[in-house]
Specification:
The complex is a heterodimer. Chain A contains two helices and 17 strands. By secondary structure, chain A is mainly beta. Classes of the chains: A mainly beta, B alpha+beta.
């Protein structure tokens, strides 16, 4: 989750109008929650490590030991046989354009509600150095058929200058539970997943981690039109299709989102499916479909259709996504948009990136359309860190959308 | 405080759009560029092998070989774990294998493995030589690797053979 992940609650009781005593109580609760989550996470990791420490699987002395190649993807930290820990941390340096607007769009979430991701008033108003993500991912594979994976993300842990009380909930630290699920390989081509998982709509949302994406700024359509995570059940797998593979994900959720983030929406109920495949190894295509109720829209059922594509050739990548969301109440909550992005290598580890995005938020007038253009540079080190710098500009009805210079350094571990 | 709509700086939009087009043009490969890649130069046939006598191992189609080495397939039919092993990324056979199976070089597979890493899936570990692959596969239940077909011996069974486009050359070893 980045700055652009934010879905602020402007006008909510937790805004800048909060009184000083309630602010202190709020901060105390926040600190207690952070400390509790850290202690719980450490306990889980230690328990996993202890549970598997006795399950050693030493190879025979004369059998070659497999290693991992240099400059390979990171392989995580093996805490014990079957238990792996990984994660990443991101520091952002944001230099906003003072022409950026500072108010949220009332369309998102109904009248007076938040605009959408990136709708962060302080982002638009002042420069900031921010430890935006400190993510820990652990997975445990007790048997070949089972896997338990969890991801905890400490967001906005440190900010310079420090967030002010009037910045609202988006500027305060938050311990997000991004994922926590158990996988059971029912058959070789079917896995059952239970728990909290990233909503399988489009490519970006499931691969949104900072080390995987090319830009600091996340496209609106990858998050604004649907809750980015769901707590429920999913059936997923890959099946051979001619000489290729077809990946599928079918899921359902019935509310009860685990540790719901104040920066995102939540499903009341959802069913959906996503299929994707790679054609000729270079072109990946995906189609997503979902019907859902959202917690912030009363008595409205949404139907969402999305398509995505990515074409890679050597180190060049072109990708794009488009979504269309329609509400059952005659236009309320209708949203649609698209983005196209190009990435080309400039040198050994340098890339240039450009993206354009258009998005129509719920409103009846043409002014509800927003447009974002972005150009940037990316450096990917062989030592698993990534530098990004980009200049973005939001136009149209772009309330709260960030404009200006955005940069970040991400370290994967 | 609410402001009116921003005027779009057309120059930036034009710049981003123009850059997209320029990047698209720059990125279009020349016809036949892939066929000319050096990674397809290895002409020896590649044998995909498992330990001798492993009941769960059956002949694999090229698509299934790809699924195994992309970690999309992780269980044999008897639900025992599949343990794929790779050769080093610079090894000619690894490069040829990657080209023929994935249509990508090992370097071009990096993004795929980076994605998988964040879903708790690691790439197959690497062994230094084809002889090491043979020894590992022969002695590790569920293991699967690949070697030059001329190196196959009694320790392993062949579950798939990948033929180079122009036929196998003499064994390079």
């Amino acid at each position: 989750m980045d700055d652009k992940d934010r879905m602020s609650k402007q006008g909510s009781p937790s805004d800048g109008a909060r009184s000083a005593p309630s602010v202190r109580r709020f901060l105390r609760r926040r600190r207690a929650a952070v400390a509790g989550a850290i202690r719980a996470g450490m306990a889980i990791v230690l328990c996993l490590a202890g549970a598997t420490a006795l399950a050693g699987d030493e190879p025979a002395p004369d059998v070659p030991v497999a290693e991992h190649i240099p400059d390979s993807p990171p392989t995580g930290i093996a805490l014990a046989p079957g238990v792996t820990f990984s994660g990443y941390g991101t520091v952002q340096l944001l230099a906003p354009d003072h022409r950026s607007r500072t108010q949220g769009d009332p369309g998102r979430g109904g009248p007076g509600a938040a605009a959408g991701p990136g709708d962060d008033a302080q982002f638009s108003q002042r420069a900031r150095l921010n430890l935006s993500h400190l993510s820990g991912i652990a997975w445990w594979e007790p048997t070949p058929a089972w896997k338990v994976l969890g991801e905890v993300d400490l967001q906005d842990v440190i900010q310079v200058p420090h967030h002010a009380d009037g910045d609202g909930p988006d500027s305060t630290p938050f311990v997000a539970l991004d994922r926590l699920y158990a996988d059971y390989h029912l058959t070789d081509s079917m896995t059952v997943r239970a728990g909290k998982f990233l909503t399988p709509i489009g490519r970006w949302n499931q691969e949104h981690s900072d080390p995987l994406v090319w830009t600091v700024l996340r496209p609106l359509i990858s998050q604004a039109a649907f809750p980015t995570s769901a707590t429920g059940l999913m059936v997923l797998g890959s099946v051979p299709l001619a000489d290729r593979w077809l990946d599928y994900q079918v899921y359902g959720a019935d509310g009860g989102d685990w540790r719901r983030s104040p920066r995102s929406q939540a499903f009341d109920r959802a069913v959906g499916v996503r299929v994707s495949t790679a054609l000729d190894g270079d072109l990946q295509l995906g189609v997503s479909f979902s019907r859902f109720d959202e917690s912030d829209y009363a008595s409205t059922r949404f139907t969402l259709v999305g398509v995505d594509a990515a074409w890679t050739w050597r180190r060049v990548e072109f990708s794009g996504e488009a979504i269309m969301r329609r509400g059952s109440n005659g236009g309320t909550g209708d949203e649609d948009g698209w983005f196209g992005q190009a990435v080309v290598p400039l040198a050994d580890r340098w890339w240039a990136v450009a993206r354009v995005e258009a998005y129509r938020r719920p409103a009846e007038s043409e002014s509800a359309r927003s447009r974002t253009a972005l150009v940037g540079l990316v450096y990917k080190s062989g030592q698993h860190w990534v530098f990004k710098a980009e200049w973005a500009h939001a136009a149209g009805n772009a309330d709260g959308l960030p404009s200006g210079l955005l940069s970040s350094v991400t370290l994967v571990y | 405080m609410r402001h009116g709509p921003i005027r779009s700086p057309r120059i930036l939009r034009l710049l981003a759009g123009g850059l997209l087009v320029a990047l698209a043009v720059a990125g279009i490969p020349a016809p036949g560029a892939r066929a000319a890649g050096a990674d397809t130069a290895t002409a020896t046939a590649i044998a995909v092998v498992v330990g001798h006598g492993q009941a769960a191992a059956t002949p694999l189609s090229p698509a299934l070989v790809a699924g195994v080495f992309a970690r999309k397939r992780q269980l044999w039919r008897d639900r025992s774990p599949i343990v794929p092993v790779n050769l080093p990324a610079a090894h000619p056979l690894r490069r040829a294998f990657s080209r023929w199976v994935f249509d990508k070089t090992p370097e071009e597979m990096q993004d795929y493995w980076n994605d998988q890493y964040f879903h708790g899936v690691l790439p197959p570990p690497v062994l230094a030589s084809e002889e090491a692959v043979l020894r590992f596969v022969a002695s590790t239940p569920g293991a699967i690797g690949y070697v030059s077909s001329c190196l196959v011996d009694h320790r392993v069974d062949v579950v798939a053979t990948l033929q180079p486009p122009e036929g196998a050359a003499a064994c390079p070893h």
